[in-house]
Amino acid sequence: MSIAAPEPKANMGQPIPRYDAVAKVTGKAQYAADVALVSPAYAYLVTSSIAKGRIDGFDLDAARRVRGVIDIVTHENAEKLKEAKLFSNGGYAATTIQPLKSADIAQEGEIVAIVLAETFEAARQAAQAVKVNYTAAVPTTTFDSPDTTSAPAKGQLAQFKEDPKVGDFAKAFDEAEVKLTADYETPTQHHNPMELFATSCVWNGDNLTIYEPTQYVYGLKNGVAEQLGIDADKVRVINAYVGGAFGSKGSMTPRTAIIASVARRLGRPVKLVATRDQGFTIATYRAETRHQIQIGAGRDGKLTALRHEGWEISSRADPYAVGGTKTTTRMYACPNVESLVSIVRADRNTPGFMRAPPEVPYMFALESAMDELAVELKMDPIELRRINDTMREPIGGKPYTSRSLMACFDTAAKTFGWAQRNAQPKSMADGDWLIGYGCATSCYPTQMAPAAARVRLQRDGRTRVEIAGHEIGNGAYTVIGQAAAEKLGVPVEKVSVFIGDSDLPPAPVAGGSNSTASTCSAVMMVCDQVRQRLFKALMPNETLVDKAKETVGLAPAPSAQAAKSDRPLDIERAFDALGVSVVEEYGEWKPDGVPMDSFRAMHRGQMRMVGGDAMKDKIAYAFGAEFVEVRINRWTHEIRVPRLVGAFAAGHIMNPRTARSQLMGGLIWGMSSALHEATELDERYARYVNDNLADYLVPVNADVPDVEVIMLAEQDDHINPAGVKGIGELGNVGTNAAVCNAIFHATGQRIRKLPVRLENLEI
Length: 763
Ligand code: MOS
Description:
Helices cover 26% and strands 23% of the residues. It is an alpha+beta fold and 763 residues long. Strand 20, helix 12 and strand 21 (495-498) form a beta-alpha-beta unit. Dioxothiomolybdenum(VI) ion is lined by residues 215, 246-247, 250, 353-355, 357, 511-512, 729.
């Protein structure tokens, strides 16, 4: 008897529950530090208490006397590792500051010693007994500190390619009917994922296995191999779940190769779980930024001139910058645009990606300025965006593949009740509470990178999908399973997904919101290969290529309609015709426009990401509109946010349930970023003061009563086979500005420096 496989369902787009939900809520999900090792040594870090200077020597006697201590590694006895190149300059590393290399100190909190002991407690006790003698120099901490050096990002940083410019800004600004010049500032912030920066290394002969939470198993594998000077195929990174990352686990930090080296020298597994405060200095962060926006416009609201200059803090060692002018200069129609991004060097650890680089700080500046312009023009801020909305970006004149910005504004405005707003600042109140409504544009580039997958289909429909993607809380397992189920026409329950292991086919970094687009496109392509083999077995005489195109749907954008037109596949009959019980296919997918070497680079863990503004003849972004209600107590200045509403259009939504969760998290983070989060610096010592979750403010449930997420239908056939734009970072881009715009409406006071604290209000 032969059973026809069910008609392919539109699995893609269904709000099915998270694949890993039960494992997570029952505690079965194994995170990196949960790994049980045989006879491990425990590592505890000692970090520098000075930001600049040198180590004169160590006094290790007391530490060595602690029972259970095995070894203490310092620059005096550590293996000299090979240099690591910065991720943003084409390498793997989050920083080129290499600890345990010399007596020199480049940043506060740099690793200066590693204590190894039989227990975690002994390692900690001994680490606290390590005495380091320093000669300290005076560090440069941040903007306005003495001895900062500032230079344009372009030319220093490979990833930063242009200072976008078109027309004649100076002349147009000079002639503009309405002019606005405003300066904005954003603070230092840290990712603070719940899961700490843990690393366990196990050697088996020449083979190294690393258990570490990472957004990029292939990057980590290749980066560590390079630093150790060994063949990358001898290194395996395993990481089934990541307990939060937000960019902090995207590139290799120095700890990993060091722990691997120490484990090799001891001849036993080593486990490190860095503390919360160490996470502030041994990994990356969002550096503080400054901006100047100048806008010239006509009385009709049309922009005639726009200039965005940005300054970002980076370390002495590395020219890191997020560089968001590529987005802000292309956001609205404007014939005369100019921009410049500069990097200001200080004696700090190197900053890095933090959800959503680079749009969060740069769009805060632009969207605040747009609101200021609307006030100046006495125009509704939504109408100002409508007047300047464009389907072509103004710098290169390239068309947006799709852009539903105004549809997002209109939908969110209606849900929010924007029409009830009295435009006059300080005009709305409820007893002691001043009420403010504010809104802003959100956006994020649509990015993709090459990915490979292996798919195995059994006669009974059970399917195994393998791809070295990453579950960073985004729902990666779930959407990859949905893509395979839909393409093969098998129930999603029959699909097992294997990710988070560098022995699986390579996938890109889970960053830049590219994961779903890249991994699902690869998985769909390989599922098509499986279907083609089965179809060929059943219909050997038909022209395969055309049939495949027609039935397997290699065409882009698998809308529900496209899925329905897929011919049902009689799997069992096809297996009989083939005379096998398992069909397995491997394939490598790449988006249009990646360089020729992209597959080779993919295996080496090097990014060849394309998309956003960087495509040849088009530009691809996801858009959103975010609305915020603030209530400010007129006596105490307490700031409350009773409502957040966001409407988003991001192409095909693979799973509205996991997507909603992502976007909701983004909105909450955006609000938090505006009102709560800031890493406080002690400028004398270039030291982070509030380096714990008690002092680093994050919102609790009482801070976010009502969050509404609306997802607009959008079909975009010009981006990737999955039709997916990516949503991981879209949610928290517009919120900073929306909060400040609402505060202006409530109080008449314009806040241009984040975060907004009650002591900053002068009502
Ligand atoms: Mo995201 S900050 O690119 O991991």
